[in-house]
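REVIEWER CHECKLIST
Item 1: Sequence provided? yes
Item 2: Single chain? yes
Item 3: Sequence as submitted:
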Amino acid sequence: MNSMFSAFKFFNRPYTVRLQQLIAPYHVTEIQWAMVRYLYEMGPATNSDIASDWLVEKPSVTAIAQKLIDQKLIYVVPGVDKRKKSCI
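Item 4: Structure as written out by the authors:
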């Protein structure tokens, strides 16, 4: 008997493999690609905004964003409030 989790993995695996093939030349991980795509689709966002939408802790998003900033794939712009910065 197949569980829902097993079925999900079965149908998700071809997508995951193909995505890894497509993003490999850019030297980004799936989660880094997800952040780039999020920013492309949603526009500028703070790490807190992304963490809230993804239902994860902010330090997780901050680490991903920092790697993308280091690779010059996204950049940070200061907000009106100097404590708030957005990734683009």
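Item 5: Key structural point noted by reviewer: Strands lie at 76-78, 85-87.
Item 6: Recommendation: ____
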